[in-house]
């Protein structure tokens, strides 16, 4: 018997990737509303942008990006042809001209440059999705072209479920992994396996809040105590204390409300000449509550 999943994927999906565009050049054709969204996504990926769109059709946000990002090279004109594709690694078109959209797509395919044509699925080598970015966390919701609005609505739901400090926790895990690689360098082999196992145990055994509370000193301590002995200790005391003080607002409100209630009822009873002691009043409040 094997514990592998032997079932073949049913297909009909697309490949989900986190495409590394740092330092690459992306051509964006069009300067409207959709283009401004594309610019934002590409800037988040540290790429350079060549933007081709007549000035009079620019969206306010697109103009803002042109004026404020040194990564954007702007040409105030319409798409010219082959020559605009020289040195380009990816093309995104967002124009209100279906004929030109299709022509640009055909040229890109000829030059084997990956292309997305907003809203024309057959002309897309890849689709955009609805995106959530929170620090290094990136979530893309794709319905594989079935319902883009639904992707947008699901995004809102997912955003509401994300733990508050998830971005900080992920950043800290990244820093800790960097420190561990410095302490135990080497690619692959036994050392690689040992590092992966240890990091996985840290991520599994520590709460996100505890990971988010790590600072430089506690990371060094964790590496010193844990890595050297190949064990993963509990979070240091000051991080656990932080956790205690991170009591959720709702819990805090319930606890404070409970004691204020007891104090008030004591005062009222006292005022009415019912001189029960404090503990008798707690009993009366509890009886009234349950
Ligand atoms: C996610 C998002 C990302 C982005 O573009 O940044 C995105 N569309 C968004 C919004 C949106 N698009 C449309 C509406 C109107 C409501 C509706 O029609 O449903 C709304 C809603 C709105 O505007 O609120 C119209 C529309 N879109 C496409 C077609 C053509 C067709 O389906 O045939 C038509 C019909 C045109 C017509 O009828 O003429 C096609 C595509 N749109 C995609 C992505 C790709 C598949 C995504 C997936 O896998 O789910 C794909 C295939 C190609 C691509 O463009 O990459 C972004 C939400 C971002 C956010 O806010 O979070
Ligand atoms: N995927 C999505 O989320 C989504 C949502 C809405 C619309 N769309 C589609 O995306 C496309 C663009 O939408 P928009 O709202 O940004 O449109 P828009 O009309 O606001 O902008 C179009 C832009 O393209 C420029 N343009 C037109 N022809 C050009 C050419 N040959 N060369 C260079 N620039 C050219 C215009 O000057 C303008 O800046 C439309 O086809 C629209 O149907 C997609």
Secondary structure elements and pairings:
Blueprint: E1 25-29, H1 33-44, E2 48-52, H2 60-68, E3 72-75, E4 90-93, H3 98-110, E5 115-117, E6 130-134, E7 137-141, H4 148-161, H5 166-183, H6 189-205, H7 208-212, H8 216-229, H9 237-245, H10 249-271, H11 278-289
Parallel strand pairs: 1-2, 1-4, 2-3, 4-5
Antiparallel strand pairs: 6-7
Bound molecules: ligand PQ2 and nicotinamide-adenine-dinucleotide (NAD).
The site of nicotinamide-adenine-dinucleotide has 21 residues, from helix 1.
Pfam family, one: NAD_binding_7
Protein name: precorrin-2 dehydrogenase
Keywords: Membrane, NAD, Oxidoreductase, Porphyrin biosynthesis, Transmembrane, Transmembrane helix
CATH architecture annotation of the largest domain: 3-Layer(aba) Sandwich
* Structural class based on helices, strands and sheet pairing: alpha/beta
Q: Main beta sheet: strand number and arrangement?
A: 5 strands, parallel
Distance linking N and C termini: 54 Å
Rough shape? Answer: elongated
Helix and strand succession? Answer: EHEHEEHEEEHHHHHHHH
User: CATH topology of the largest domain, which one?
Assistant: Rossmann fold
**Percentage of residues in helical conformation:** 40-55%
Report the count of strand segments: 7
Pathway: Porphyrin-containing compound metabolism; siroheme biosynthesis; sirohydrochlorin from precorrin-2: step 1/1
GO molecular function: ferrochelatase activity; precorrin-2 dehydrogenase activity
Keywords: Membrane, NAD, Oxidoreductase, Porphyrin biosynthesis, Transmembrane, Transmembrane helix
Pfam family, one: Sirohm_synth_C
């Amino acid at each position: 018997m094997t514990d592998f999943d032997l079932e073949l994927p049913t297909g009909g999906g697309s490949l989900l990737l986190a495409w590394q565009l740092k330092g690459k050049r992306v051509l964006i054709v069009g300067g409207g509303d959709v283009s401004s969204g594309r610019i934002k996504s590409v800037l988040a990926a540290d790429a350079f942008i060549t933007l081709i769109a007549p000035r009079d059709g620019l969206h306010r946000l697109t103009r803002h990006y042109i004026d404020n990002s040194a990564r954007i090279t702007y040409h105030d004109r319409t798409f010219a042809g082959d020559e605009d594709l020289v040195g380009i690694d990816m093309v995104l078109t967002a124009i209100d001209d279906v004929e030109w959209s299709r022509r640009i797509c055909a040229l890109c395919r000829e030059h084997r440059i990956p292309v997305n044509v907003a809203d024309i699925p057959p002309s897309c080598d890849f689709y955009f999705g609805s995106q959530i970015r929170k620090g290094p966390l990136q979530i893309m919701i794709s319905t594989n072209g079935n319902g883009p609005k639904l992707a947008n609505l699901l995004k809102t739901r997912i955003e509401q479920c994300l733990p508050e400090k998830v971005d900080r926790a992920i950043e800290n895990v990244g820093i800790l992994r960097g420190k561990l690689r410095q302490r135990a360098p080497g690619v692959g082999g036994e050392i690689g396996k040992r590092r992966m196992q240890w990091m996985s145990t840290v991520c599994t055994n520590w709460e996100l809040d505890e990971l988010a509370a790590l600072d430089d000193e506690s990371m060094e301590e964790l590496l010193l105590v844990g890595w050297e002995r190949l064990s993963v200790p509990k979070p240091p005391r000051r991080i656990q204390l932080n956790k205690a003080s991170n009591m959720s607002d709702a819990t805090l409100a319930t606890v404070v409300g409970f004691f204020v209630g007891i104090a008030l009822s004591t005062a009222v009873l006292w005022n009415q000449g019912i001189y029960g002691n404090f503990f008798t009043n707690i009993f009366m409040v509890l009886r009234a509550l349950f």
